[in-house]
Automatic annotation (TrEMBL):
<dbReference type="InterPro" id="IPR042555">
    <property type="entry name" value="StarD4"/>
</dbReference>
<dbReference type="GO" id="GO:0015485">
    <property type="term" value="F:cholesterol binding"/>
</dbReference>
<protein>
    <submittedName>
        <fullName>STARD4 isoform 11</fullName>
    </submittedName>
</protein>
<dbReference type="InterPro" id="IPR023393">
    <property type="entry name" value="START-like_dom_sf"/>
</dbReference>
<dbReference type="GO" id="GO:0032367">
    <property type="term" value="P:intracellular cholesterol transport"/>
</dbReference>
Amino acid sequence: MEGLSDVASFATKLKNTLIQYHSIEEDKWRVAKKTKDVTVWRKPSEEFNGYLVLKGYVIKRATKPKVL
């Protein structure tokens, strides 16, 4: 059952990596693009060539439809 232990090890490593990503301080992120509804931040990855991307958006509440 060596394969299952590899999966468990990989899952633990992935979990720890995602927790680390969510713990990155806000001042480490830089705005990549901003519109009135969406802001996209990026940070150079320490694990691969490229960037980690973080996005935020505003959802406008729809107005209530008029009842005829």
